[in-house]
Write a structure and sequence with these properties.
Shape: globular
Largest sheet: 6 strands, parallel
Number of strands: 20
Structural class: alpha/beta
Distance between the termini: 52 Å
Helix content: 25-40%
Length: 627
């Protein structure tokens, strides 16, 4: 394929602009990270007589909501009438799953609560996947759903579904609103619950007749959440014990999870790491919390983590877990994980502590406060000259980093290497770019071969592993951070689940960029079939290579985007730079790559981290006597 010419780009851009409606003229700027109630509301001393729907929209305005993602339908339709005149921007998505993931991407990029709206029945059930996704990754979103009128609940009425019951296991809390008078209080409580403590999704289900009924609206409401008091400040005794262990350990590791990002604790983390000299590993959900280039960073642990990170945890005598949950993808076979390690586990959610791995020193508290207090306690230890030299530990880890550095082999058949594409994308786009990944091989390569130097620049579906996440989440991130370049890194399988949201992007003026890593297959499934199923490739070939169905360039153009294609290594830089030059329309780049590339290193599922493979048939040589 030839390089894209300026004339080709200009024509593609013109086609995209012709299909693009002007964006809303509302100023969509984000506030600072982490406020439970997003904006100070103007009190309404005299009650205003409104419909329940009007009260809902006024509540959203008072909470400082600037954008919602949704699709109207019968039960939620009353809410769309006052929304027509509201300062809240509504983005009309093409599928409710897109609305939920867009709300998640918005929340992950900005730290604010994301909001999605759907109607009853199938509209609400289409939100189940993004709600579950947000729950697994502790993302603050509020999902507002319409419900059939109260007299019809329980009668199997048209488009009725018990969405409150369906989502009970995958929400932090959910509400079925019973009267129009309670709408402001329920909305304020929902936002507070979503954003405070351990963040998560909250569902608000509102019957149609409640939306239609008249009510008196006043603001602010009084929150009534008995028993909900997240512990923010850790216990001093536990902090002092953790600091003592950190000062005495010979092989310590800081195991950093996404909770550090949620708490806005990245500056404190760097200070703590540099104060103690302890190696740092950052999970898939925590990439960017500690600079990848920092000399103390060992990389990502787990199934596809670096050899140094995996063995650092495995051979540690002390693990200090900060906002992490000892997920199976990190620990491998749990009973063989880090057998000699004492564990300090700090988390804002007490249910996580000891759930998977016994915590010798449990610390309940917000990661920012925990880290700040650890810094103070460690400083006291160091002032008393209670410090252990980690030089031998670093010699071992540095040797592993050197011998088993991340890399890849160029495909022997001359096809384009996906790792090379992603590596060059990260280098050309730069450290300020927000990267949003789908799920599978491309997700792992994006986590490995892009250097994340700043927090909140890496978004992905970590816990649920949701195919179809990338395009709508990138859309939400770009809405939340309109002045930041947003690249979605997607696979040809994931992309075909939610690419219709590119029509939303084109019409709403949301110029995301999508790097489509097109290997013609469900890549990660094919990798497992290669390794564990005797190369019996059952139902993993998608036809995007052999038949070019769909033709992703034509599909992109049909959706109002600029479509580009790259099939050769010598064209990669020019193609990425051409995409970077287009800022007035969404761009999709079809990178046609080889089908046989694999993600390495790898710990096979269900096995011990001791069995990590650096490459196919290559087991790292690690002398037990060294530790």
């Amino acid at each position: 394929m030839t390089r894209p010419t300026p004339e080709t780009l200009a024509n593609s851009a013109r086609r995209a602009r012709a299909a693009t409606e002007p964006a809303s003229d509302v100023d969509h700027t984000s506030t600072t990270r982490g406020a439970a109630v997003q904006a100070a509301a103007v009190a309404t001393p005299e009650p205003a007589v409104l419909s329940g729907a009007g009260s809902l929209v006024r509540s959203l305005e008072a909470l400082g909501v600037d954008v919602v993602f949704g699709i109207p339908g019968g039960a939620i339709l009353p809410a769309y009438d006052p929304l027509y005149d509201s300062t809240v921007r509504h983005i009309l998505v093409r599928h409710e799953q897109g609305a939920g993931h867009a709300a998640t991407g918005y929340a992950q990029a900005t730290g604010r609560v994301g909001v999605c709206i759907a109607t009853s029945g199938p509209g609400a059930t289409n939100l189940v996947t993004p709600i579950a996704d947000a729950y697994m990754d502790s993302v603050p979103i509020v999902a507002i759903t319409g419900q059939v009128a109260r007299p019809a609940i329980g009668t199997d009425a048209f488009q009725e579904a018990d969405i409150q019951g369906i989502t009970l296991p995958i929400t932090k809390h959910n509400f079925l609103v019973q009267t129009p008078e309670e709408i402001p209080q329920v909305l304020a409580e929902a936002f507070h619950l979503a954003a405070s403590g351990r963040p998560g999704p909250v569902l608000v289900d509102i019957p149609k007749d409640v939306l239609q009924a008249q009510t008196s609206f006043t603001w602010p409401p009084t929150l009534d959440l008995p028993g909900y008091r997240p512990t923010l400040h850790p216990h001093g005794k536990q902090i002092r014990e953790a600091a003592r262990l950190m000062s005495n350990a010979r092989r310590p590791v800081l195991y950093v999870g996404g909770g550090v990002l949620k708490a806005g604790a990245t500056e404190g983390l760097r200070k703590l790491a540099e104060l103690t000299g302890i190696p740092v590993v950052t999970t898939l959900m925590a990439l960017g919390a500690f600079p990848d280039s920092h000399p103390q960073h060992l990389g990502m642990p787990g199934m596809h983590g670096t050899v140094a990170a995996v063995y650092g945890l495995q051979k540690a005598d002390l693990i200090v877990a900060l906002g992490a949950r000892f997920d199976d993808r990190v620990t491998g076979k749990l009973d063989s994980f880090a057998p000699d390690a004492t564990v300090v586990h700090a988390d804002i959610d007490p249910a996580e502590i000891g759930k998977n791995r016994h915590a010798d020193v449990p610390i309940v508290g917000d990661a920012r406060h925990v880290i700040d207090e650890l810094i103070a306690a460690v400083t006291v230890e160091r002032a008393a000259d209670r410090v252990v030299d980690h030089a031998d530990w670093w010699v071992q880890l540095d040797d592993l980093r050197k011998r088993y550095a991340l890399g890849y082999e160029e495909p022997s058949d001359g096809t384009l290497s996906p790792q090379y594409v992603i590596k060059r994308l990260g280098e050309i786009a730069g450290p300020d770019t927000i990267f949003v990944a789908g799920v599978g091989q491309h997700q792992m390569w994006a986590s490995q071969f892009i250097s994340y130097e700043k927090p909140y620049t890496w978004l992905n579906s970590g816990g649920a592993g949701t195919m179809g996440y990338a395009v709508p989440a990138a859309m939400g991130a770009k809405v939340g951070k309109p002045d930041t370049v947003v690249w979605g890194v997607d696979g040809d399988g994931c992309f075909q689940m939610t690419n219709q949201e590119l029509a939303t992007c084109a019409l709403e003026g949301i110029p995301v960029k999508i790097a489509l890593i097109n290997n013609g297959n469900l890549g990660m499934v094919r990798q497992w079939q290669t390794l564990f199923y005797g190369e019996r490739y059952s139902n993993t070939e998608l036809g995007t290579h052999k038949h070019r169905i769909p033709d992703f360039v034509k599909l992109a153009e049909a959706l109002g985007c600029v479509g580009l294609r790259c099939e050769n290594a010598e064209d990669v830089d020019a193609t990425i730079e051409a995409a970077m030059a287009i800022n007035d329309a969404p761009v999709v780049v079809d990178f046609v790559v080889g089908k046989d590339a694999m993600v390495w290193p790898m710990v096979p599922a269900g096995t011990s981290n001791d069995e990590i493979m650096f490459a196919r048939g290559v087991r790292p040589a690690f002398d037990e006597d060294d530790v």
